[in-house]
Amino acid sequence: MIRALPVLISLALGSTLCAEDFRPFANFVLSAHLKVAGDRVTPIPMKPIVFHVATDGQRVRISAEGNTEASSTFEIYRSDGVGRQRTGEAALEVIPGIQALSKTGGVLRHLRLTREALTITTFPGVSDHTVITHALAIAPAAQVALPKSVSFASPTP
């Protein structure tokens, strides 16, 4: 009976403990893919890809349309907004958004996510190249439903 107890507990709680609580956040379409090496920025031509973004409040999962089995998961480390500087303006404004990290196989990736856009910056461990992927929200920001478990802090004036 003692040996069967962990099995019984895992069977009883299995759906609760292993449940995928990721809920859809928004869909984004690739708008730019760039490689930065030293002082050179090189556009990487790519066809438009739709990214599906989901969150459980602690992690963000991104998968490409048509390939939901392969996904990238980022750990949220900051949810009090992200900085944005508009072209031609000197002021930095803070807008609602999150920042998250992923480190897999010696590659560090940083995610900057708002309702309007997502940016993934990839830093390979043994290369001087940085890859920046930028995607824009498909639906207008007013139509994007924010999951209840993720709350973006309002910027302070």
Q: Work out the radius of gyration.
A: 19 Å
Return the domain count: 1
Q: What is the CATH topology descriptor?
A: Lipocalin
Which outline best applies? Answer: globular
Question: What is the element string, with H for helices and E for strands?
Answer: HEEEEEEEEEEE
User: How far apart are the termini?
Assistant: 62 Å
Major pleated sheet: 8 strands, antiparallel, barrel
- Count up the helices: 1
Could you please describe the fold and organization of this structure?
The protein has 157 residues and is mainly beta. It has a single domain (20-143), classed as Beta Barrel (Lipocalin), CATH 2.40.128. It has one helix spanning 4-17, and strands spanning 23-37, 40-43, 50-55, 59-64, 67-78, 82-84, 93-95, 98-104, 107-113, 117-124, 129-137. The strands form 2 sheets. Strands 1-3-4-5-8-9-10-11 form an 8-stranded antiparallel beta barrel. It has a two-stranded antiparallel sheet with strand order 6-7. β3 and β4 form a beta hairpin. The model is unreliable at 1-19 and 140-157 (pLDDT under 50).
